[in-house]
Amino acid sequence: MLSSITIILGIAAIAASADIPAGIMPANSTNTTSSALNPFGTGFLLSNSSSGYVYNATGNLTSREPRPFTPSGGLANNGSVPNYHPLTDFDYESLLLALYQEFIELDLFEFGLRTFSVAQFQQFGLDANDRALIEFMAEQERGHVMLIENILGPSAINRCNYTYPFTNVVEFVDFCRKVTRWGESGVYGFLEHLDSRDSAQLLLQSVTTEARQEMIFRQFEGLFPMPVWFQTGITQSMAWTLLAPYISGCSRDSPRVAWQNFPALNITNNPNPAAPNATLPSNSTSPNATASTAPFSNSTTLPGSNLTIVPGITSNRTGFSFPGRVLQLAGDFPGKPVGPNNSYTTNSSAGAPRFAAWISQLNTTYTALENVQNRTDGWTATTTQPSDTIWPNVSEPIVNGSMFIIATDANISVTPYNISELNSHIVAGPAVYLAG
Ligand SMILES: *[C@@H]1O[C@H](CO)[C@@H](O)[C@H](O)[C@H]1NC(C)=O
Ligand SMILES: *[C@@H]1O[C@H](CO)[C@@H](O)[C@H](O)[C@H]1NC(C)=O
Ligand SMILES: *[C@@H]1O[C@H](CO)[C@@H](O)[C@H](O)[C@H]1NC(C)=O
Ligand SMILES: *[C@@H]1O[C@H](CO)[C@@H](O)[C@H](O)[C@H]1NC(C)=O
Ligand SMILES: *[C@@H]1O[C@H](CO)[C@@H](O)[C@H](O)[C@H]1NC(C)=O
Ligand SMILES: *[C@@H]1O[C@H](CO)[C@@H](O)[C@H](O)[C@H]1NC(C)=O
Ligand SMILES: *[C@@H]1O[C@H](CO)[C@@H](O)[C@H](O)[C@H]1NC(C)=O
Ligand SMILES: *[C@@H]1O[C@H](CO)[C@@H](O)[C@H](O)[C@H]1NC(C)=O
Ligand SMILES: *[C@@H]1O[C@H](CO)[C@@H](O)[C@H](O)[C@H]1NC(C)=O
Ligand SMILES: *[C@@H]1O[C@H](CO)[C@@H](O)[C@H](O)[C@H]1NC(C)=O
Ligand SMILES: *[C@@H]1O[C@H](CO)[C@@H](O)[C@H](O)[C@H]1NC(C)=O
Ligand SMILES: *[C@@H]1O[C@H](CO)[C@@H](O)[C@H](O)[C@H]1NC(C)=O
């Protein structure tokens, strides 16, 4: 059953429904219950129909150009004056979420610089130039905050109070890596759905800056700067779920966020980038620095190489995880207070946990949850890292970089532009997995 056909970069994108998994390697999909996104089928579709539009791609212009050197079509390129303002609740709430995100980044960068001494930064290989870069990133966040405040107008929120899960520089840098990752992915998930294309343009120009921040924090950790081919997008509710636990209090007149807070999901054995052997599991959400007195010291993580783990433009230090690795997951039951002033409550409309959704690059791939066991306040399960690549016959694995794992009750097919269909199936999560 074909549920959608879209054109992405001129190549036919075909998503199958869950009952006919469009697995990337269907005959080999023992590890992968349903690889929901293999967006690219084979061959070109010359003709495509979407929302009443029909376009036959011949390589030649098909209509007269309305202006010289201006092919017909496109949105808002007819000289109309831009209106940088939300047009719908969807726009307002998406931008509000983005503002909550920009504020925590501003506060986080300032907090790290204020909290740790020059010597503490130096101990982890970060010098005055590196600190100046973090300070400049805080400046960038001030700019992003001003931008969204201007778009939202008088009802924009102020800075809140935050609670951070780190006690040293290496944990701080690692937390920054995660926050900028979900900040970036959280915006990619809704940008193309905004009614206000005008506002989307401005937000695009700030989120691309955020993408550079994420990469720099990877470089500070001595990680390979960009191990993926595509940066993934997640929904507003997924981003809010990741963000809200770290916001302790906001002023009472702050507008409320309409997105969902899903129950928390932890990966108990997330790879630990600070450990000499990063593939060794760490039970904490951030690296356990006491377990490794020299977090950026030499490592033999990768077979056949003796790497020196120091901050750097690049290194071969990636691939902390591998197909067949068993992940230990712990999920909360819904109903827990969370977020600013504990005034939100985690919520799920899904049934029992059955699948892990691996959201990375262009793909959402599922593996079965095994050994599901209920505890008093939640549940635990295991699942096995799949081996798929993003397309058949390419080297790039789906699972790489900092990516997202969600526990779901079903393995529905979603592709990047309809990933919000997943929301109603989320049992817990997302969690950020450091796959490579
Ligand atoms: C399954 O995987 C093996 C090993 O990668 C490969 O040789 C084989 O061709 C695959 N089978 C199919 C049907 O793709
Ligand atoms: C697209 O191509 C089909 C088949 O050649 C043709 O019937 C149709 O009129 C074309 N549509 C447009 C908008 O050119
Ligand atoms: C594109 O235009 C060229 C030059 O007019 C013509 O020779 C060619 O047949 C056209 N191709 C298609 C697919 O219409
Ligand atoms: C932030 O925390 C400080 C110190 O506890 C408190 O005085 C202030 O009211 C808090 N602000 C908000 C917005 O919660
Ligand atoms: C790193 O830890 C993994 C277990 O997670 C182990 O298989 C591997 O041999 C270790 N590598 C080194 C160099 O100790
Ligand atoms: C980490 O979690 C695993 C699985 O829950 C457990 O067996 C192990 O004892 C924990 N280790 C620490 C240091 O807490
Ligand atoms: C961190 O490592 C130390 C030393 O190995 C250990 O005693 C402690 O329990 C660990 N903490 C966590 C949160 O895993
Ligand atoms: C790392 O490797 C360098 C060069 O081989 C060596 O001088 C240094 O002592 C090593 N550091 C650690 C912490 O092992
Ligand atoms: C890594 O270091 C060990 C011990 O110094 C050495 O025996 C080995 O040859 C080195 N491996 C590589 C690939 O350099
Ligand atoms: C890094 O990895 C690539 C690809 O595996 C390899 O060709 C290269 O030699 C490695 N470089 C170092 C410095 O280990
Ligand atoms: C499943 O994962 C295991 C462990 O990595 C691997 O050896 C095997 O080839 C995978 N099977 C498929 C069909 O991908
Ligand atoms: C996840 O880990 C955090 C921090 O260690 C802890 O507070 C929380 O209870 C854990 N949640 C679950 C569902 O295990």
**What would the principal axes of the Cα set say about the shape?**
globular
Helix content: 25-40%
Oligomer: single chain
**Whole-number average pLDDT?**
82
Strand content: 15-25%
Radius of gyration, Cα only, in angstroms? 22 Å
Q: Main sheet, how many strands, which sense, barrel? A: 5 strands, antiparallel
Structure class:
alpha+beta
Low-confidence stretches: 1-46, 281-308
Q: Give the ligands present.
A: 2-acetamido-2-deoxy-beta-D-glucopyranose
| Head-to-tail CA distance between termini | 35 Å
Summarize the helix and strand pattern as letters: EEEEEHHHEHHHEEEEEEEEEEEEE
**Count of structural domains:** 3
- Identify the strand order in the major beta sheet: 3-15-14-18-19
Give the count of helical stretches: 6
Count the E strands.
19
